[in-house]
Design a protein that fits this description.
The complex is a heterodimer of chains A (about 250) and B (about 260). By secondary structure, chain A is an alpha/beta fold. In chain A, about 35% of the residues lie in helices and about 25% in strands. In chain B, helix 4 packs antiparallel against helix 6. Classes of the chains: A alpha/beta (about 250), B mainly alpha (about 260). Bound molecules: adenosine-5'-triphosphate and magnesium ion. The site of adenosine-5'-triphosphate has 12 residues of chain A, from helix 1.
């Protein structure tokens, strides 16, 4: 049985903007899934629908046996996830290390152990100890992204969601983060969904790729098959990624 | 016809707003009594409400006391009742002016900050992040602020009572040439516990009102910087009106016939 099942998911915002027009997808347990798509096509909205932050206009999402529409089991449902938001969502009243500790504290109640986990994760994402006691507003955007990532992987969830984990990072740090994501997903044996623009990241991380266009998933398959999949939009997306801008 | 439908729409929207504030307030209150409790957050907000608001509250109370003494003197000399100044200052400050002024000043200082902080947390997905970390935002964001407001406002107002009365004393004995001894005796003689208690109860209620409106408007803030700005304005306006309305209700309850 699949771990996550999107059933004809529609999302229409107040004012009539229709962002998702019937998304169908099933993701297996332990799968590392990538969602690709143009900017503004509704990838982040899809993720927020999955988390139950946005109410679905129509359709259903089933994770294990729980439905996102089932408000009674909301707590159990949400507990399955650990999320890296596109905008980081670090708590700005806490320092970097307190942010990660706060995350870790939800799974382990021992204060000292939480601190150790927090330190370990922060070092793993390549942050130096000097920034541990700074506030989110005092560090750079890329550092914030890494701190948020450390917070996300400090929990031990069943499903990891990453919204653009490498955007805004230099290629060296981006590479480190990619490897870290792959290791984390593998060592925890969890299901993961990663949203990205970057085809290289997609190829490196994915078992399967889905492409979101005009509110529906136009294509799902292996990253290597994108080139000749027969879908005009996907091929265009693939080619555009490989164009080197000429002077 | 058009006027009627507009009027109807506005009344419906207002009723809906009142309903959702009531539900939010109820949920906030409920979450104050259900664990887990975030003591560090409670302490942080107690310091913000109680300690950092002390200077402005003390200053307004002092001026309030001074102004009443002066006004009363002008009015009371017309029918030779200057002797009542100490009593009037005492009653005005403890029953009305200290709690109301403190409520309004703390609304401007803390209520607006609550709406802005929670609003910007909403905008930057921090509230959603709390939920995905398994933390109930009502318990983490709203409950500590309610507890801090309800506990610290009476404390603030108690100090404002003392300073307000001192303000009246200062003006009476220096500018208006009252004797120090008789002013003090009069104040002590006319000190009624119910006056002070009613003021402190009011303070607690005002604190609750201020925090609830701040949290509510922050929580349901529109996205973007303008949304947060509007949320802050609405929080301050709603809370000021709420405080004055509550003041009337509580006064009627305590001293009404
Ligand atoms: N809270 C909201 N209210 C109304 N419309 C929204 C809201 N959030 C997103 N949208 C709309 O949904 C559409 C998709 O937004 P989304 O953030 O999902 O894009 P995205 O695919 O994640 O893009 P990017 O790659 O740039 O992050 C946009 O047109 C946006 O205007
Ligand atoms: Mg996005």
């Amino acid at each position: 049985m699949s771990k996550i099942e999107f059933k004809n998911v529609r999302k229409v915002f107040e004012g009539g903007l229709s962002v998702l027009n019937g998304v169908n997808l099933s993701i297996e347990n332990g799968e590392s899934h990538i969602i690709l798509g143009q900017s503004g096509c509704g990838k982040s909205v899809l993720m927020k629908c999955l988390l139950g932050i946005f109410k679905l206009s129509e359709g259903d999402i089933i994770v294990d046996d729980l439905s996102v529409n089932d408000r009674e089991h909301r707590k159990e449902y949400v507990k399955k996830f650990s999320v890296l938001f596109q905008g980081n969502a670090l708590f700005d009243s806490m320092t970097i290390i307190e942010n990660v500790e706060f995350g870790a504290n939800q799974v382990c109640k021992d204060k000292i152990k939480c601190k150790e986990i927090a330190k370990e994760k922060l070092l793993a994402v390549g942050l130096e100890e000097r920034v541990f006691n700074l506030y989110p507003a005092e560090i750079s955007g890329g550092m914030q992204k890494r701190a948020a990532l450390a917070r996300a992987i400090s929990l031990s969830p069943e499903i990891l969601l990453f919204d653009e984990p490498t955007s805004g990072l230099d290629p060296i740090t981006g590479g480190i983060i990619c490897n870290l994501l792959k290791d984390t997903v593998k060592s925890l044996g969890v299901t993961s969904i990663t949203i990205t623009h970057d085809l290289k990241v997609a190829e490196f991380l994915s078992d399967r790729v889905s492409v979101l266009n005009k509110g529906v998933l136009t294509w799902t398959g292996h990253a290597d098959d994108m080139k000749n999949c027969g879908n005009a939009f996907v091929e265009h997306f693939y080619k555009a990624s490989n164009i080197i801008l000429k002077k | 016809m058009k006027l009627l439908s507009t009027l109807g729409r506005y009344s419906l929207a207002t009723l809906q707003e009142i309903g959702s504030v009531a539900i939010f307030t109820f949920n906030g209150l409920k979450s104050c009594f259900i664990p887990p409790f975030y003591f560090k957050e409670i302490w942080r907000h107690m310091v913000i409400v109680g300690f950092y608001s002390l200077p402005i509250v003390a200053l307004t109370a002092m001026f309030a006391g001074m102004i009443i003494a002066l006004q009363c003197y002008v009015g009371f000399t017309r029918f030779n009742a200057e002797g009542a100044i100490a009593t009037v200052v005492l009653i005005c400050i403890t029953r009305e002016l200290a709690p109301v002024f403190a409520g309004l000043m703390v609304t401007g200082r803390v209520g607006s900050a609550i709406a802005a902080e929670i609003g910007s947390m909403r905008v930057s997905d921090q509230i959603d992040a709390l939920t995905t970390l398994g933390v109930d935002p009502m318990k983490f964001l709203v409950a500590p602020r309610i507890i801090a407001g309800v506990i610290m406002m009476p404390f603030l107002v108690f100090i404002a009572d003392i300073i307000g009365v001192m303000g009246g004393f200062l003006i009476s004995t220096t500018v208006l040439n009252f004797s120090v001894g008789s002013y003090i005796t009069q104040t002590v003689q006319n000190l009624e516990i119910i006056d002070v208690i009613s003021g402190l109860v009011k303070a607690s209620c005002f604190g609750f009102c201020m925090v609830c409106f701040g949290c509510y408007h922050g929580f349901y803030s529109d996205l973007g910087a303008r949304g947060v700005g509007n949320a802050t304005t609405s929080a301050v306006v709603a809370s000021c009106i709420g405080i004055l309305a509550l003041d009337y209700l509580l006064t009627a309850l305590f001293f009404g016939k």
